[in-house]
Specification:
The protein is an all-alpha fold. It is built from four helices and no strands. Helix 1 packs antiparallel against helix 2, helix 1 packs across helix 3 and helix 3 packs antiparallel against helix 4.
């Protein structure tokens, strides 16, 4: 018996995840990011309890360019997870399962997350 070199089906290089699957995976990833980010929030709150010197150090760390980038990512993860969670609540009652509706609601969740993140940072920086 000879073995022929056949491609895997579906082959990794020519398989593309559907948009709804990407949203589902990113919902889980942002949930993990929020859990890790809550540790950062706990650090900031604990530094306020330890006194002015600790709070100043934490504020300096979070106010650095890298700290602000992390906080921006945390806020995007928060708003994306919120918007996609609302979408999942509609699914829990049986609404929005049709593919065109699921894709539209997915786009709406991403757009809402971007707009809410930008609006929050615009208000915070003004």
């Amino acid at each position: 018996m000879t073995s022929r070199a056949r491609p895997l089906s579906p082959h990794v290089r020519n398989y593309r995840f559907p948009f709804v699957a990407i949203l589902s995976i990113s919902h889980r990833i942002t949930g993990v990011a929020l859990a890790l980010g809550s540790l950062l929030l706990a650090y900031w709150l604990a530094s306020a309890a330890y006194g002015p010197a600790s709070f100043e150090q934490a504020s300096r760390l979070l106010g650095s360019p890298i700290g602000r980038l992390v906080l921006f990512g945390f806020s995007f993860a928060l708003f994306y997870h919120l918007a996609n969670g609302i979408r999942h609540l509609f699914w829990d009652v049986g609404l929005g399962f049709e593919l065109p509706t699921a894709v539209r609601s997915g786009h709406a969740a991403v757009i809402a997350a971007v707009l809410l993140t930008v609006a929050t940072w615009a208000v915070a920086l003004s």
